[in-house]
Amino acid sequence: MKAIFLSTSLAAAFLAITAQGLPSEESAAQLPAGQASGAAETHAQSTSSQPQSFEERRRLAEAGDILAENNLGFDYTIGKGVQQDYAKALQWLTAAATAGFAPAQVNLGVLYERGWGSKIDRTQAARWYRAAAEQGNATAQCKLGNLYHYAHGVPRDDREAENWYRKSAEQGYAPAQNNLGALYHHGMGVKQDYVEALYWYRKAAAQGLPEAESNVGVMYEDGLGVERDYQQAVDWYSASAMQGASRAQYNLATMYSAGRGVPLDYVRAYLWFSRSAAAGDPLAARSLKNLSMVMTPHQKELALSLLADGQDAKLSEAQAQSPFDADHE
Questions:
Q1: 49: nearest Cα among 63, 32, 34, 31
Q2: H or E segment and range at residue 55
Q3: What is the pLDDT of residues 206-254, one digit of tens each?
Q4: How far apart are CA 144 and CA 105, in angstroms?
Q5: What are the C-alpha distances in Å from 246 to residues 58, 276, 278, 299?
Q6: SS3 of residue 142 by DSSP
Q7: Is the pTM here over 0.90, yes or no?
Q8: Using CA atoms, how far apart are residues 173 and 194, in angstroms rounded to an integer?
Q9: Hey, what domains does the chain have and what are their CATH numbers?
């Protein structure tokens, strides 16, 4: 059985969980009433959009505008308009998070989870993700589910992970949909159900999530929850691989090297194994070595020439497109 991808706020580690990267900016138009200026109880006095000037943001933040506090923390986190400074990011995000602003609570959780501005503190990350999750923030709900799955800052509890993934997934958050599918796929915290797993994978894949696209490919290749269909597997792996998902690149290479769903093609297999290996997939590096032993000198020369020219990335547009529209029920 092929490896499954989860989506996580950190680098993929498990089946394959999504990189949800940096904290986010917010605009006043996205805030609940009463949260655009000051504490949650204070009525909104800010304009409908945040000023683009860093100095103006800082002036508003110093006056207690929680939207500006959050966005100033974002600026310091990524070095937008100012030198990157995690300690100051932590300061401003803490101010907005303490006032009850859910996006700032998520962002503060990310800093603690990654150890930006402080030592890694997953207990604090869980505290702030929970605060935002209980307000209905879908990103926080998914991140809290990840912590329960990995036992980071909280005890390992896949039932609790399922609870938070589901809350997030039902709001349409693609990483949570993918991760809920993975729980059903492996029977973690829920009864194993391949049909339900595929349902949630497809929900996330419809939004273009590469981990989910690869997972749908796995279901088609292995015939789990659906009739085995190598062509569909290739289509889904291709959509994911073109977005840079290393395990999808590996899976696609295995299809070319075995002639499943596509004509046998060692050159194309070599190209995709190479891309996956370059991204750090250990299985791809080993497979690349084994494949080299059965390739002819001409095939090796052609593959290396295409790699040098960057041709491994130049597949047809049809291959790069998600097959979801053609496969959607």
A1: 31
A2: helix 54-62
A3: 999 999 999 999 999 999 999 999 999 999 999 999 999 999 999 999 9
A4: 12
A5: 40, 5, 9, 23
A6: helix
A7: no
A8: 20
A9: 84-205 (1.25.40.10), 229-327 (no CATH)
